[in-house]
Amino acid sequence: MTIMAVDDEPIALDVLCRAILETEPDCSLFPFTDPWTALEEVRRGSFYPDVAFLDVEMFDMTGLELAKRLKDIHGGVNIVFATGYPEYMGEAFHMHASGYILKPAAPENVRRELDDLRRPVKRQDDGRLRVQCFGNFEVFFRGRPLNFSRSKTKELLAYLVNRRGAVCTVRELAAVLWEDKPNSPALQSHLRQLVKDLTDTLAAADVHGVLLKRRGRLAVMPDAFSCDYYDFIHGDVRMVNAYMGEYMAQYSWAEFVVGYLDRR
Q1: What does pTM read for this prediction?
Q2: Where in the chain is the domain with CATH 1.10.10.10?
Q3: Dihedral Cα 175, 177, 183, 187, nearest 10 deg
């Protein structure tokens, strides 16, 4: 589990971190006294928190504002507010926070929130790639985000995941990735470069067996990775509860799937 803790009071942050580590000793903990630095690290993709413990009253940015900005970047984060002001509880839950604890943070209170997260975190790594479709599309391997050198390469993988193993032609992929451009030899050449870049990206991360390539056609192997969208379709209650009305939010072509998920 990857956990972020943000409090501009160093002593309070230390108490919170000790409570977190006592409760979850194997977690990857990222503590910050500056909310802007914390936000920038997530924006850069240095890590993506499963849970963010945020102080509400901070000098440069409130925890409520930080929570909103974090969710814009990483929609799957669980927000737990840690504060000495119980009057903020109503506003915290209005923005769909996972939980709320009062300072000083006690291990038993941290344990209670981690055991009842709004978006449950899978505790065991089965060695496969983990694909997140709810919120923004993100890809993780061994607890870290996969690094894509090109945004279009990431979008290519997103669309293939969206198609759930269906074979996609070069023409279909080009129409989706460059919807405002006519199909041309130059565009097909660009797409072939993206396919190679995606293949190289997966190989560099030591991820194999995800792509099925045929001449002029491409698909993913759904059993080669875990995916919240696929688990939702298969009736996994945790993923049904995790769906909050957002699916691959950064891609306009994914909007059509939201209606299908809402009906499900």
Answers
A1: 0.58
A2: 129-263
A3: -160
Express each pLDDT in 147-164 by its tens digit: 999 999 999 999 999 999
Domain 2-114 has CATH 3.30.450.20: no
* DSSP string of the chain, one letter each residue: -EEEEE-SSHHHHHHHHHHHHHH-TTSEEEEES-HHHHHHHHHTTS---SEEEEES--SSS-HHHHHHHHHHH-TTPEEEEEES-GGGHHHHHHTT-SEEEESSP-HHHHHHHHTT-SSPPP----SSEEEE-BSS-EEEETTEEPP-SSHHHHHHHHHHHHTTT--EEHHHHHHHHTTTS---HHHHHHHHHHHHHHHHHHHHTT--S-EEEETTEEEE-GGGEEEHHHHHHTT-HHHHHH--S-BSTT-GGGHHHHHHHHH-
Q: Identify the CATH number of the domain defined by range 129-263.
A: 1.10.10.10
Distance between the two ends of the chain, CA-based, in angstroms?
29
pLDDT, one tens digit per residue, over 44-70 is 878 889 999 999 888 888 888 999 899
